[in-house]
Amino acid sequence: MLRLWQFFQTVLGIIFRHPVTGTTMIPILPDGRIVLIRRNDTGKWSLPGGIVNWGEDIPTTIERELEEETGLNVVKIRRLVGVYSAPDRDPRIHSISVLVEVEVQGTMKPKDTLEVSEVEAFAIGSLPKGDLSHDHDRQLQDYLNGISAIA
C-alpha cells in the first residue's frame, strides 16, 4: 500500500509538472568507508536516497531511505553537501536532490530488495567512480572535493 501511495505521489508530480524533492546520502562508516548501493533498475552503483514522502521532513527521509536501502542507521547528519536540480539529473523524472553527509552504523543489508540488489562499503581509493547512476558521479566528486554545490 505504501509503494502504491509513493507511486501515486510521483505521478501527480509529473502530471502537474513540478519537480519531486528527494535526498541523497554519502554514508560514512566508523572506519571512513563510503557505502554505495547497486540499483536493480540500472545495475549501476549509486548513492542511497529517495523521495521525500508527503508530510515528511528531510531528516526523516534520510533515516528512512538509508535504513530501507542499506540496513544502516543514521548516527549523525554531518553536513549539507549540495542541492542538485538539473532537469535531466534523474532519467525518470525532474527531481531535486538534497545531498548530505551522514555518519552511519549497523549491518549492511538492503531491506528494499525491489530497488537494491547489493550494498557495499568502499575505501575512497576504490570507489567505482565514472559510471554511477543518475548524477551521482558529480555529487560524489563534489563531496570529495569539499565543494558545497547548488546545481
TrEMBL record:
Gene Ontology MF, one: hydrolase activity
Database matches in Pfam families: NUDIX
Keyword line: Hydrolase
UniProt keyword annotation of Hydrolase present: yes
Annotated CDD domains: NUDIX_NadM_like (cd18873)
Gene3D superfamilies to which the protein is assigned, alphabetical: Nucleoside Triphosphate Pyrophosphohydrolase
Residues of the signal peptide: none
SUPFAM superfamilies cross-referenced by the UniProt entry: Nudix (SSF55811)
InterPro entries per UniProt: Nudix_hydrolase, NUDIX_hydrolase-like_dom_sf, NUDIX_hydrolase_CS, NUDIX_hydrolase_dom
Domain Nudix hydrolase: 16-144
Domain of life where this protein originates: Bacteria
Similarity field: Belongs to the Nudix hydrolase family.
Protein name according to UniProt: NUDIX hydrolase
Organism encoding this protein: [Phormidium ambiguum] IAM M-71
